Structures are given as C-alpha cells and as structure tokens.
Amino acid sequence: VQLVESGGGLVQSGGSLRLSCSASGTAFGVNTMGWFRQAPGKQRELVATLTITGGSTTYADSVKGRFTISRTAKNTVSLQMNSLKPEDTAVYYCKAFQVRTFEGVADYWGQGTQVTVSS
Length: 119
Fold this sequence. Notes:
By secondary structure, the protein is mainly β.
C-alpha cells in the first residue's frame, strides 16, 4: 500500500492550502484516513480523520473551524486549510488506518509534505 501526498508549500499567514492524499495498492479499499503533523522539536499530532463509511470526522481543537477533511475520490482524501497561522507550520503526514490487504491489516503512512506559514 502506498500513500502519495501533494499540495504542501509556503503561504502567508491568513492564506489557504489544500493537501491531497491518495492510497493505492489495496484491493479492499481504505475506510479511515487522516492527517497528522509534526513541527520541529515536537511530537507528531493528529490533525483530522475521516471515516468513509458514515462520513464521520474528527479534528484537533487547534484546527477546528479552519481545516476541513473530505473524500475527493476513492481512497483519496483532501485537507483544506484556511486561515493558516505560523503555528500550523509542520510536515503533514497522511495516514491510512487499519488497511486490509491479502497479507493482513496494518496502518500506512505517507512520506510527508512540508507546510510553511510565514508571519
């Protein structure tokens, strides 16, 4: 299973970016995907998750009302980030939870994409 992320970059404070993550290599599909981020010197933290079946979402308190996670295609999720702040600067990682393959069940991570918000 491979996760490919895109959409990171440099933006000014108050601006917007849209991240996308596409999962491939699973015959059974992916039901829950999410985004995490890790700033320099800090632990990786959950940003948002989406469960395809039922459409439930979760968000970190720090991004509620500014970020929106959505499904844009089969096995593809996007993270729309608005009103960005310098403290949103981090490497953003996509994660696919409990992916079922012929070899078993496991979580998978993308390679990460840098988001930098200048003040």
